[in-house]
Amino acid sequence: MILIPVVLSFFVSGLVLWMLLSSRLKTVGLDYPNHRSMHTVPVPRTGGLSIIFGAAASFPFLGVTECYFFLLMVLLASISFIDDIYNLKISLRIVMHIIVTTTFMLIFEHDLGFVVALVVGTYLVWHTNLYNFMDGIDGLAGAMSLVGFGTLGGMALYQEYYSLAVLALALATAVIPFLIFNFSPAKIFMGDSGSIAIGFLSGALGVYGWLEGAWSLFFPLVLFSPFLTDASFTIFKRILQKKNIFLPHKAHYYQRIVRHGYSVKTVWLGFFLVMLLCAFLAVSIESLVLSAQISIFASLMAAFVVTAICLEKVLRCSETQST
After folding, report:
1. How far, rounded to the nearest angstrom, does the alpha carbon of residue 15 sit from its chain's CA centroid?
2. CA 168 remoteness from chain centre
3. In whole angstroms, what is the distance from residue 136 CA to residue 118 CA?
4. Which residues does residue 44 pair with via DSSP β-bridges, in sequence order?
5. How far, in Å, are 5, 151, 152, 290 from residue 59 at the CA level?
6. Contact assessment for residue 47 and residue 182, using Cβ atoms and an 8 Å cutoff
7. What is d(CA 204, CA 108) in angstroms, rounded to the nearest whole number?
8. Closest residue by Cα to residue 253 from 201, 192, 304, 212
9. What is the pLDDT confidence band of residue 179, given thresholds at 50, 70 and 90?
10. Which pairs with CB-CB distance under 8 Å and at least 24 residues apart come from 152-158?
């Protein structure tokens, strides 16, 4: 039963992607190069639609709760697609993210208490925007989606949460056709319609699986830590520098490494290997007691911090010399 929606998602995604890249539709929602861009020619940013439509093939196979989650993702994708075309105000977008996150938390029957609910809600709004922040070079967000949803789906299947597994694995397979054409040099981008929607669902499924007992709290945190750390470190640094965190920039580590002289493919490969390592680590710690999970997660965060500090010194020296 699980194989059917997963395979359907792959082929529907591929079909929609082919339509989006056809002569009539490939000029819709073009992303024109600017000072922040890593590309030099206009590229359509409608690729996220192929992922959403592909995953929609799994809808008849989902449980009621997962259907609600998927519909919330579609709502965010619709709003974000309008933003891709008409550039909505940031305040309006954030309000919608909060509304969708609040609705998500009202769906499941878990009394978290005000403080925990506030922390979880804030985390989900942040996670919703992660993919948008990290979707800055070819293939990066697609790779995280493939590894992230694939691992979530595999763990849900192992723990016999079948509906959750169907939704996660359907997203993972729907990403594959897009990733092929998004790999450097990209022929299509994910766009906000994909990055915001997928960012929300990846965070939402992580939280939902934790609350339902499919995995521990640290499983999704370790799994998505490559995105969580780069985006969080960069935004925190910009706050300290008193810069507007909502304005476009090229301050993420992956962008700065490319400007340092490494090719997009090399940077992508480096991040992809880290994603695979974190996925392996996330699965490995599931059999450990909570104290051991906390220690490993803290060690992982410390490793990322040390790496960021070292990178900061090297990149800052290079950027100083180039100016």
Report:
1. 22
2. 13
3. 29
4. 30
5. 8, 20, 18, 35
6. yes
7. 11
8. 304
9. very high
10. 152/202, 152/205, 152/206, 152/209, 152/220, 152/223, 154/283, 155/209, 155/214, 155/215, 155/219, 155/283, 155/286, 156/209, 156/214, 157/2
Least confident of 22-36, 53-67, 108-122: 22-36
**Share of the chain residues as helix, strand and coil, in percent rounded to the nearest 5:** 75, 0, 25
| CA separation for the pair 49, 65 (Å, rounded) | 22
Residues 251/231, Cβ–Cβ less than 8 Å: no
| Tally of CB atoms within 10 A around 228 | 22
pLDDT band at 239 (very low <50, low <70, confident <90, very high): confident
Give me the residue label for tokens 């439509």.
53
Model confidence at 235, pLDDT cuts 50, 70, 90, reads confident
Q: What residue type is assigned to position 167 of the chain? A: L
Question: Which tokens sit at 181?
Answer: 């054409």
Which contiguous run of DSSP H or E holds residue 159?
none
3-state DSSP assignment of residue 34: coil
pLDDT in tens, 36-70: 666 667 888 889 999 999 999 999 999 999 999 99
